[in-house]
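Marked as duplicate of an earlier ticket. Keeping the data here for the record.
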Amino acid sequence: MGVLKKQIYQWFRSRQQRRAAEQISRLGYTRLFDGRPAEAYPCVPGDMLYLYKAVRDAQPEVILEFGSGCSTIMMSQALADNAQEGKVGRLYSLDADTRWGQVTIDSMPDELVEWSDITLTEAIPSEFAGEPVWRYANIPGVVPDLIYLDGPALNKERKAAVDVLDMEMSLKPGSRLIVDGRIPNCKFLERHFQRNWRGKRNKLLKNRMYTLINIFTSGFPR
C-alpha cells in the first residue's frame, strides 16, 4: 500500500471508528466495558458495533465464539436485546488463554451473565490435510448458526484454526461465520471448505463474513 493510499485508508478507518464509538455511546453500551482492567485489550468500537449489528440482524439461536474478550460482552448484549423481542439465543465462548479468558469472565456485566457460557480450554497442535493447525480441546456439543473466529493465537508454524471445518457438515444453510483478520486462516478455510459459502470482506474492519448458501458440497468459489 502506497503512502497516499495508506493515509486515505487511515482517515476512513479513523472516521469509521469515531462514528461507531458515537453509536455505541448513544445505545448506552460504552459502560459495558468498564469492568475490564486497564491492561486488557482495548475495545475497538468499529468491531464491536459490527458484531452487535450482526447478532441483531441474524437473530441466532446459538453463537460459537473462538477467543473471548470485548466481543463476548457485546454479543451477549445483542442477545439480551434480541430476547426482548422474543428471540432467545445463547453464546458459547472458548478461550485457550486462561488469563484473558478469566478477565472476560470477571468483567462480564452481571445482567449479561445469563446469555453467555465461557469455557477455558487449551488449543491443541494438530493436522488437517497434512498441514499443521490448531484445534480446541473441548468444544460444546452445539450446532451454531453464527460463529465468530478470533482465536487461538496463530504463529508461523500453525497459521489456521480448523474447528469450523470439523463441524462444517453439521451446519444449517444460512449459518454465518465471521473471521476477525487472520487472512492466512481465511485462505486455509477457503481452500478446504466442502460446502458452498459466500464470502464478503470488510476492508476497513479487516474482517470477513461467510454465509453458508445451501447443503450442496461445492466448496468455496474460486
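See parent ticket for discussion. The domain at 3-212 is CATH 3.40.50.150 (Rossmann fold).
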